[in-house]
């Protein structure tokens, strides 16, 4: 964490928010496991140590950079209550709500997609997100809304065109709920031919009156942070028509000029 802060300072970044993944259903909290159950399990971050380290580096570098407390909630229908409990206990500035798995089947390794057509798994994915935004509310932005395309073949399928109706419902709901969306800059890292979410989704969000928008680097390494393309993506947002982007403090959006 401290090395990441040093890299951010070197790059001239004035504010950074850490958002380690929490994915109940496929990952576990160490405290919930007996010693003999730990082997072979993937663990969520140790929250006590995580927030203590954030406090330490925030104090250490307070004159050089602002450091915020965040988490990325990889929520599923059957794990909502666990995230409600985690949110109540955590000193958070910012929460990304994401879908990384459905029915404990991962998207990244195609466990969820296997056995379904492209049309089927995109429909189920967006239906799942629509359910979640209606039933979980302790978050700031919806992360990488059309994430599935990161793992798809480039075969010309357009998930926006096929799913525009439910995407519109999702966006209308989160706008009314006072939530936002994230522009995820990892499209450059994964060599995708569109933004994430797509330019079509971003334009629709703007047309529907959406204002809360964050820019997330999705950095998992020093290389990701150094090549996060944030300024380039800001220009993309200006081209679409956005005037501002947000950071968050104590779960409240702070608007900045693009």
Q: Order the strands across the largest sheet as they lie in space.
A: 1-2-3-6-7-8
For the record, the count of structural domains works out to: 1
Tally of DSSP helical segments? 9
Estimate the global geometry from the Cα principal axes.
globular
* Average residue pLDDT: 93
Secondary structure category: alpha/beta
Which residues sit in consecutive blocks of at least 5 with pLDDT less than 50?
none
Rounded to an integer in angstroms, the radius of gyration calculated over CA atoms is 18 Å
Share of residues in strands: 15-25%
Classify the helix fraction into a percent range.
25-40%
**Which fold name is given in CATH as the topology?**
TIM Barrel
Per CATH, the architecture is: Alpha-Beta Barrel
Mind telling me the CATH superfamily name?
Metal-dependent hydrolases
Biggest sheet overview: 6 strands, parallel
C-alpha end-to-end distance: 27 Å
CATH class membership: Alpha Beta
Order of secondary-structure elements: HEHEHEEEHEHEHHEHHEE
What are its keywords?
TIM Barrel, 258 residues, alpha/beta, single chain
């Amino acid at each position: 964490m401290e090395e990441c802060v040093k890299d951010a300072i070197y790059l001239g970044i004035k504010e950074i928010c850490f958002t380690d993944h929490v994915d109940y259903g496929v990952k576990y909290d160490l405290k919930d496991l007996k010693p003999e159950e730990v082997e072979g399990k993937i663990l969520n971050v140790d929250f006590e140590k995580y927030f203590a380290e954030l406090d330490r580096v925030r104090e250490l570098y307070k004159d050089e950079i602002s450091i915020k407390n965040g988490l990325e909630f990889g929520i599923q229908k059957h794990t909502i209550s666990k995230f409600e409990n985690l949110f109540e206990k955590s000193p958070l500035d910012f929460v990304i709500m994401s879908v990384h798995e459905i029915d404990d089947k991962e998207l990244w390794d195609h466990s969820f997609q296997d056995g379904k057509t492209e049309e089927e798994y995109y429909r189920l994915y967006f239906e799942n997100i629509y359910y979640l935004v209606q039933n979980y509310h302790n978050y700031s932005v919806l992360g990488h809304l059309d994430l599935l395309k990161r793992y798809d073949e480039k075969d010309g399928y357009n998930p926006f065109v096929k799913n525009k109706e439910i995407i519109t419902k999702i966006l209308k709901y989160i706008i009314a709920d006072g939530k936002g969306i994230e522009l995820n800059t990892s499209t450059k890292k994964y060599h995708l031919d569109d933004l994430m979410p797509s330019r079509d989704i971003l334009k629709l969000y703007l047309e529907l009156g959406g204002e809360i928008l964050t820019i997330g680097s999705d950095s998992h390494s020093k290389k990701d942070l150094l090549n996060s393309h944030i300024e380039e993506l800001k220009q993309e947002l200006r081209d679409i028509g956005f005037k501002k982007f947000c950071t968050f403090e104590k779960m409240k959006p702070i608007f900045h000029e693009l």
